[in-house]
Amino acid sequence: MVRFPYQRLAQVFSELQAETLPQEELARRLAVSTRTVRNDIELLNTILAEHGARFILKRGEGYRLQVDNPDQFQEVTTRTGNAKSTPHSSGRRVRHLLLQFLNSPFALKLQDLADAWSVSRATLQTDMADVRERLGRYQLSIEAKPHYGMKLLGAETAIRVCLSDLLVELATENPDHPLLVGDPVLADALTTVRSALPGCLARASIRMTGDGVQFLTFYCAVAAKRIVEGFPLQDFTAEESIDGIRHASNHIVNLLRQMTGMNISPAEEAFLYVNIAARSVQGALPSEINADDAAALVRYILDYINSRYHYDLRHDEQLSVDLITHVKTMITRVRYQINLPNPVLADIKQHYALAFDFTLAAVRSWAKHSPYRISENEIGYLVLHIGVGLERHYQIGYLRRPQAVLVCDGGNATLRTLEAMLHRRFPQVDICSTLACQEYEALESVSADFVISTVRLSEKNKPVVVVSPFPSDYQLEQLAKLVAIDRTRPYMLERYFSSGHFLIAEEGLTQEELFERVCSQLVREGYVDAEFLSSVAEREKILSTMLGDGIALPHALGLLAHKTTVYTVLAPHGISWGEGDVARVIFLLAISKTEYEEAMAIYDLFVSFVRQRATSRLIESGNFHEFQDTALICLSNE
Fold first, then answer.
1. pLDDT tens across 355-371, in order?
2. In a domain, 534, yes or no
3. Which domain holds residue 221?
């Protein structure tokens, strides 16, 4: 029998028995560094050497188990055969705990679970914080009583949706996950539903996404399991009645009746109807949409975006149709507290940062006059539609065109010929002025990005490219290198960042104190009015402006600045930001109405910093010029 010296080794062994994994993935699963993984593998190989096996690293694939002596290795597999069923990591223990509470009709004692899983009770108590947070999303809670244990409290509908979402998560990770195949009642129900559900939906002409079908599959299996185990729905009604969805729910109810051998209550059918409606894909023809609430919400969002941010999307009929189609099913989900996961929410926040922000502001403003509370996941899906609308109508990916001075002493005909050729070959170049040699030499400096000349000139502060009236391929290549340089980001850094709006925060500074200090300065300098501070604080209360990697982007609700600027704050000691987050680099944005199209390019700078994980480098800056140099280096690596 083999006994590993510590629990993580058993987990590494178990993971690599199941599949070949690179060290980066192992490190992610174990929440350790790659160096720790290499040390663990080295120790495992020392142990396994006596048992005829070893882990080898195959380039491009990762670590895999190689058995040299199957007979010797047999005792290792006998010892560790059940390792996969024991949750070793915090994430796995949280899932196991969720399933225990969701499936158990009785109170559970943490000590019993701790003994079964060979962990301390204190470890499980730490995991329970995540369990409670996850259950809280579904209005479920845990009641704890001394000498009795802990029991799940909440509506049966919420238990079923939470359980279904969890099982979908497990199946996405591994279709043969032990927690799925280990429950024979659930496994049998899933087999039946998977074969019959597509036909039920097809007969009722219901269209669903792949994610929608997967959720409904698991929900039906969970419903059958709960009914058989004595937990039927007793009290639930649905207000809507759409014929196609009603037909689908009737077909599935008949399937549940066959699976369980029991009568199915009207409450079961009503909740099944709601779950189908919440995930069905409605028709996209305007004449088929008759949802007053959905249309009102879409009008409100588009009016809000126009009035506060000056992006006018109100006349985009395709966008209105797409939004109303989506919002119609969204309201059904929100009304019945059905959670729709959004696996790409983090990507949406980064790639549509500005669109996410004003969609969030519009929805939260609408929610003040509505009984509904719309989650971040739902807002993320709205942002995708609005982001596409913005791309149709605005230059959201703002680019600063290269600017050039053209110097030519060959006469007007030569000048026009060269000018026409440059416009044809490099239409993105903005020729801001044409000068004679004498006029150029009289200049102290050049404000354009580079100079194109037909004669040799002394360089001032910008590069000079010499070309003939009919440029050669080599001359065009030299010019193309200058044109291809990304000038948008350096331009943004130069135009909107300044040493006067740069601060290295002292230890102990709070978020409120920071807002007060920075906004007061911007008011004194005429960038914003006095109400800007309250708007920044209100936006932060709606949702944390933390973007990622310790970078936060506080800003007002709307484009309230008279002049656009970015106030940069480096906080080497960190500033508490939102729920448990710590901000180390803070960019407070003040954006004016006249420069709203450049706002997306400003946001893109910060997204680039997050992608580059630049925080650790930026906070080492001792002054603004060091920050600017470091920022340019980070952005040049994109």
1. 888 888 888 888 777 77
2. yes
3. 173-279
